[in-house]
Write the structure tokens for this entry.
Amino acid sequence: MTDATIITAISLGVTFLFMLGVPVFLIIGYWVIGTSFVLGQTLDNVGAELSNVFVKGFALLAMPLFILTGDLINKSGIARRLSDFAYSILGWLRGGLAMAAIGACGLFAAISGSNSATTATIGSMLHPEMIKGGYDERFSAATAAAGGTVGIIIPPSIIFIVYGYLMGLSISDLFIAGIVPGALMVLAMMFAAWIICTINGWGYLIPLRLGRILKTAFGAWLGFFAIGLVLYGIYTGKFSPTEAAAVTVGFCVIVGLICYPLNRIMHNHGSDTPVDEKSFRDMAVVEGFKLTEVPSITMRSAQITGILAPLIGISVVMQQNMSLLGAQAVIGNFVISMGGFYAVLFTAMAIVFVAGMVLESLPVTIILAPILAPIAASVGVDPVHFAVIFLVGASIGFITPPYGLNLYVASGVTGVPYFRLLKYIVPYLVALVFVWFLVALVPSLSLMLLPN
Amino acid sequence: MSVWSEAAMIIPTMLGGDWWEITQSLRTSGAWITGTVATLLGGLLIAFIYAAVPFIDRHFERTIMVYSYLGIAVIIFVEVIRRFVFSLQAPWSTTVPPVLFLFMAWVGCSYNIRLRTHLAFNEFRMNMPRKMQFACLTLDAVLWLGFCIIIVVTGMRVTANAADNFQILEGTDNIMKWWFLISLPIAFMMMAGRVIENWYEDYRNLKSGAPLISQAVIGGDA
């Protein structure tokens, strides 16, 4: 039996295990073990890499820290204020609450770096209100799932961190390059939501009032400050993305701890009170949290990190084995055989899209980026531009069945069964694919904000 | 020397404490036998401890995860502030957080095994008959245990090698790197404990008629 036959058998075998529901970590792990035998490699490399990825990966630390910021701004009440602000601006439109949910995802994503945290936070916060507002529950869950995709495009982003770490690109540059495409994704999804809601007549309208906008903007000042802090760090280069993440965590913890007693002293209303019944004084501080709550907030982030970090570790070994097997050359030759600039670009996008349907975005990035990025560079695609194209595609993978992580998260937080929300994902998918092509065809959308 | 003799020599060699000899003994094929036995017995012992002391079952991994996490954030945050205000930064501030991340990642992996929240495509499995579901859960357990054995053995080799070479954690004067690297095989032994615990729970559920698979909620137990 040839090596190629054995590797095909291994790949089919782990695909079968995947369909049986075996965890993705094990799927990749056993593929690595199987191919290591074919390559005649010692398994010691697996044990060594599963340590080295973390021990040598200071840049990777931004990932858990930006996940933690998401949970901290949620618990402190900052996320709620950001969503109130989004609703006050968009509530006068048909489907305003759905659009506000997407806008809130964008604002939340500007502080947190995680797609699932974005979906979970905004979904659990706004789904009940959307149901009360007369929206279809499937549409509401689909909105949370789709909105979460910008969590990894609008900076900070854990997937940009992994991509930059792997490909030796400046993570700060990648963050900056994600700003405009992320904003376009938000706008495109809002447009899709508006069309669906207009056709179905969902949602009630609230008048557009300057006073309300100013009040909610004032109430969200801590969120804007946190966004400014992240952007300041990234733009000026005063601190690395990992340090920016730690500073944002520190800021959120300090804000939470100071606001909690202040809120009680000022006898402020809680987050359940409608914005119209709150005064500017009520909006000055957020609810915050007690010091004793910090471990439980951290625990939630730690659990998510405990899922993603091992996947990164094992995917790095998988990528090494794929490289040794010559997969890079095979896929590379296939992509190059497609022709010139656009053919290569679109073939690479198709590969990312298909991979995103069956794999989590981290393995997709770790496995495919080192293969596709050099090919794209060889036909003249700017590396940062390609990173954005690649990662927008990977983010779309969060809502493409059968393996769309955000669909599972949205299903989990809203209680809407997985298969039922698929119908309303389609319009968002169309909108996102449109933006994806736009970003691919217009490099300046990604590169315009980069410092020269 | 036969593979069984090699296996039998590993524990006495480890108790001897000479890292060069330990490294040599772990390089033998016998290490796989000892590693298999150690992982399974270690896992059983850990599962037994979890069953006997629910406090440990509930809090041990969570405590490590939370305080490693907070340690990472505090060290980096404080050092950034020190750099801005005092133009000072401890040399270990960029090397200790990654090893804390190593702890957190693998202990977190173990915790997620317990909660069954590792990412998986469960749609087909959830619609299978109960016996098939139990077979799938047993398959998971076997695959996890197999992987744990591999990482316990290879992780111990990496650890012993670091100790044998007197590798010091970068940025420090006297903190040995293997003190941190050993967390990998230990974490995978803890995972073996969780796998055994879960499988026993599945077996009891099968016998009692309780649901075998339920929708996992990420962050649901935080």
